[in-house]
Amino acid sequence: MNLIRKVFLTALVVIMTVSFQGCSKFMGNMMGESFLYPTEQPFPKTPIDYEIEYKDVTFETDDDLTLSGWLLNENADQIIIMTHFGYRANRFGYQVKHQPGPIKPYKKEIEFVKVARRLTDAGYGVLMYDLRNHGISEKTENGCGTGGIDESNDVIAAIKFISSNESTKGKNIGLLSYCMGANATFFAQAKETELFSTNVKALIAMQPLTNGEFLCAYGYNRDSKVFKIAEAKFNEQTGYSLDAPVLEQIDKVVTPTLLCQGKKDPWTNFDFINAVYEKLPVEKEMYWMEEPTHRFDGYNWFYDNPEKMLEWFDKHMN
């Protein structure tokens, strides 16, 4: 009887181990895929549905991709460039019903055009555009997101477009950059410091976060099998790490920066946010959004609470 019991327990341990390893491999691959390949989303509305005059625009990046966007209220004296958060969004926003698979990170719609409406009502023009591999902007050869590293070329292209476009050249530029878009903006400043110091007057960086920090906050530390599998898959496709070296770019920032973060966001590392703020070498302010309990609530925040956004841009752009 003892022998039968021992054999049974041994078999059970083997089955559980194999199952756990299989689950870890599945989760690692799934997380790696989610970081690599943006979810395609349609455009259910355009700015005209929000009573905002706009025109469709395209512009080129230095690495020869064509990006698509909307230019709202183009005759305004100042222009805000909005860079969305990537992966599960496009310039329009985020739509719950179009998310693939069993994981639905949020239950509400995000409509970035509503935030843009706050800006146009305040007298600003707005450029909204799709990052590479998102929306109807051109895809790279492998179609992979890189956590803001290659996407930095898109931020640079957007600034160059506004600085050279007949109706907007010479106007002050501000940046409203969300999450991966904020990462991309930091990388862009390190690449093209003079472009920013000459053309850009203010930056609002909304909840920057690396893929690695997100995965850790999601419950998989860097020593876990899930993290290692996701890291290997990401590196194989992009040549980069999930832990994009965002902090190494911060000391090159030249634009006055309002850093925004939901105080109860469960998906971030507050040590990382504090480190970003401490390293910023420019005029800066830390804005803690007190009420949001979900990370994505922060992306809707400036629609319901536009005061801080408008105060920062008014201060530095007028």
How does the SSE layout of this entry go?
Elements: H1 2-36, E1 54-60, E2 66-72, E3 78-83, E4 93-94, E5 110-111, H2 112-121, E6 125-129, H3 152-164, E7 172-178, H4 180-191, H5 193-199, E8 200-206, H6 211-217, H7 225-238, E9 257-262, H8 270-279, E10 284-289, H9 297-304, H10 307-317
Parallel strand pairs: 3-6, 3-7, 7-8, 8-9, 9-10
Antiparallel strand pairs: 1-2, 2-6, 4-5
What report would you give on this structure?
Helices cover 40% and strands 17% of the residues. It is α/β, with parallel strands linked by helices and 318 residues long. It has one domain: Rossmann fold, CATH 3.40.50.1820. The strands form two sheets. Strands 1-2-6-3-7-8-9-10 form an eight-stranded mixed sheet, sandwiched between helices. It has a two-stranded antiparallel sheet with strand order 4-5. Helix 2 (112-121) packs parallel to helix 9, helix 3 (152-164) crosses helix 4 and helix 4 crosses helix 5. The protein is globular, with a radius of gyration of 21 Å. The termini are far apart.
What structural keywords apply?
318 residues, alpha/beta, Rossmann fold, eight-stranded mixed beta sheet, two-stranded antiparallel ribbon
What do the pLDDT scores average to?
88
Task: Estimate the strand proportion.
Answer: 15-25%
Helix share, percent: 25-40%
Q: Give helix and strand order, one letter per element, not per position.
A: HEEEEEHEHEHHEHHEHEHH
- In the predicted model, the low-confidence regions spanning at least 5 consecutive residues are 1-21
Structural category: alpha/beta
DSSP, total strands: 10
Integer tally of domains: 1
Please give the alpha-carbon distance between the first and last residues.
85 Å
Corresponding CATH architecture: 3-Layer(aba) Sandwich
- Can you count the helices? 10
CATH class term = Alpha Beta
CATH-defined fold name: Rossmann fold
Strand order of the largest sheet: 1-2-6-3-7-8-9-10
Relevant CATH superfamily:
Alpha/Beta hydrolase fold, catalytic domain
Overall shape: it is: globular
Radius of gyration, in Å, reads: 21 Å
